[in-house]
Predict the structure.
Amino acid sequence: MSSRIPWRVRAGTAALTVLAGVGAFTAPGSAAAASPPGAGRQTVSYHGYRVEIPADWQVVDLAENPRACLRFDRPAVYLGEPSEQSDCPAHLLGRTAGLVVEPLTARSAGQATAATARAPRGKATAPAAVSSNDTIQIAVEDAGVLVTAAHTPATEHLVRDVLASAALTPDARRAELPRAAQRPEAASWPRPDRSPAATWARASTPAPRPPRPP
């Protein structure tokens, strides 16, 4: 049985390249292959943004699977803009780590907050990015992508290592994040939050138990 979690309307096509230690998978429309990663890692390239992730992380191309559930109970990286409607199991428990790399558009820019970091010109990383509600978000404007990384206290170091491995590829195209789009954290309440981390949190957190009668 599945439940549908609303999301923004998908836009654009994911150009995906994944290279693992023993082989490679290239999605239709992929521009160029990334260089082979180190042991136990795989390299993922999307929209001019390249990052190394653990070899056991699942890679989901949202252009090919637009209704894929953004799950936070297993490590994964999601490439592309999520759909407004996602097919998720009725009950998801547990949290680990994951990334969403999506095009920087007017819609995705609406998810940015005051905590969203900006990578400097010519860079794909923002080492000083802060974590807010177990989420690190970086606008990599030289690649035109918004990167949202969710973690737990136990996996924050791993997630920061993944983010630190990011680099720009030759096909990167710049798109700027409007400063007006960065809403303060307080402004997101009581409006519903449809950011990747918020969706994962809702899908991964069990419903609160009612208090016991006295």
